[in-house]
Hints:
It is built from 14 helices and 15 strands. By secondary structure, it is α/β, with parallel strands linked by helices. The protein folds into two domains: about 25-260, 3-Layer(aba) Sandwich (Aspartate Aminotransferase, domain 2), CATH 3.40.640.10; about 265-395, Alpha-Beta Complex (Aspartate Aminotransferase, domain 1). It has a seven-stranded mixed sheet, with helices on both faces. A hairpin with a 2-residue loop joins strand 6 (about 175) and strand 7 (about 175-180). Helix 3 crosses helix 7 (about 210-220). Bound molecules: pyridoxal-5'-phosphate (PLP).
Amino acid sequence: MLPAILGGKPARKDFIPYGKQCIDDNDIQAVNEVLKSPYLTTGPKVEEFEQKLCELTGAKYAVAISNGTAALHAACHAAGITNGDEVITTPITFAASANCILYCGGVPVFADIDPDTWNIDPKKIKEKITKKTKAIIAVDFTGQAVKIDEIKKICKEYDLVFIEDAAHSIGTKYKGKYVGSLADLTTFSFHPVKTITCGEGGAILTNNEEFYKKIMLFRSHGITRDSSLLTETPFNGYNEQIDLGYNYRMTDFQAALGLSQIKKLSIFSQRRKDIVEKYNAAFSKIPEITIQKEIPESETTRHLYILRIKTNTLKVSRNEVYKALNAENIGLQVHYIPVYFHPYYQKLGYKKGLCPNAETLYEEIITIPLYYSLSDEDVDSIIEAIDKVISYYRKQG
Ligand SMILES: Cc1ncc(COP(=O)(O)O)c(C=O)c1O
């Protein structure tokens, strides 16, 4: 069959996005109730949501915050990142995982990925450690947990803070335990394409009371009402700013949405797992596609499904395959351009060639739709489109 880009009939009549939230009547009712209540921001729902995140993950403390980027900023602040400190992270991530280091005056240091799992490679982390290294931000890319035990061991040996950017991985378990209480600080994002959403939202989880207290101040201007921290207490409700913070507060209606969504985490997670299984079964039969390898320790709730195209075998570029699949009415993305390829990072002096595995991966990847409300027919039509496009280029080669 001729691909749609060459005038053939598209595999789908209607366009399907690569990611989408699932909002039902219960979610709407939960938000409505807050809108009618006295508290619109940082009221009881925020605390309830934080409590729920602790219950889910086993973490001692959770702080709900305005988004996942703010969560990373707060985590870096809690870890004490300051001018000139080096923090090691992966290049295959959203820019926020490195920007948060810059916000604190630190220096992002990129360590290459494992070419099979696409997560940061602990061996490459070790090679990048210097006297200035203060922390590691490891990203559970696509939802798969990083090699947590190996990274913890490195952090212990070199006295580093382990921040797990779990923006993709709520619902994932590592060695049977939910991510959230395994690193020194774990951050979540509740952006609409994520497994559960607050509209915008994020959270930081930790077992460390000192980190927790720092983050609580950081979230709201560095202002406290805690009488033990005040220099004077002239009246009830008196507050003082004792640190420099931001307005990173989450609203109560976002938290209400999060609370309603988290009730459905296991069904959202199961549907994503089922779709991944179907995709894996179909794509493992296509020799020009490589499937992301999973480590046995990670029981993954996948946020993203990424096709890795063997462009050398197929003799077409990723961009050509991307355009052809788009013409079949399939919504796509590329996750991610290596962070240091961004013009801003290039201007900071980062050179291409730094992380060869990441750079090769970037040339070959396409993210295809994955979310709860994809029907079996949707999944079949996506597989059909991919099969059609790859078969066409195979014949051309
Ligand atoms: C790996 C990663 N970290 C952090 C973030 C930032 O989260 P947010 O968009 O909620 O600020 C994202 C967002 O997509 C992400 O993918």
